[in-house]
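Re-running dUTP diphosphatase to confirm reproducibility after the cluster update. Everything else is unchanged from the original entry.
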Amino acid sequence: MLQQQLQTMLALQDDINTLVNENWRGQNFPWYRAIWVESAELLDHYGWKWWKKQDPEMEQVKLELVDIWHFGLSLELQQGSPDAVAAKMEQQLAGEQPAAGNFRENLEAFTLNTLSSKQFDLVGFAQLMTDCELPFEDLYRRYVGKNVLNRFRQDHGYKEGTYQKLWFGKEDNEHLAEIAESLDSTAENFSNQLYSALKTRYTGSQKDLA
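Result of re-run:
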């Protein structure tokens, strides 16, 4: 199950990267730098200022971790095909059962490893997931949902400025969350089901506007 879900996510990431730039692997984009910047944003949501009261915004923390995962998958894909990379990632994760620790310190270690190696610290990321109680199933569901929505927007005029984010009085990400809740995220074609259901709703909303 884990390897299948990793393969699915890696294939989706490969597809969206290719949609943006057909030769994305050859460009050697600094994905590690994007992880570094996202990590700083994540820490702001978690809270680090000792001179004022701050409560962790855990939903935002999890969303930032999903964004980091996008960039991490892109770094991993520089090493090979989705299938080969998924097998390697599964091996790395299989032996990891980290106990929850100090999130801020673990985030700093993860960021330091990322900057020093310019690679994705998968084990460090798994530690952060444990620290903020983000199970892999939840990461998978959130990642696939965001990836599908990004692809859907691109396919329906996002770049050209013709895409409508508001349908039936709600933003597209709200529709996505509703649809995802109604589907089985363990299904092999989960991403295709999500995309089809989004398209059906969006098409219906555009007909109403006509």
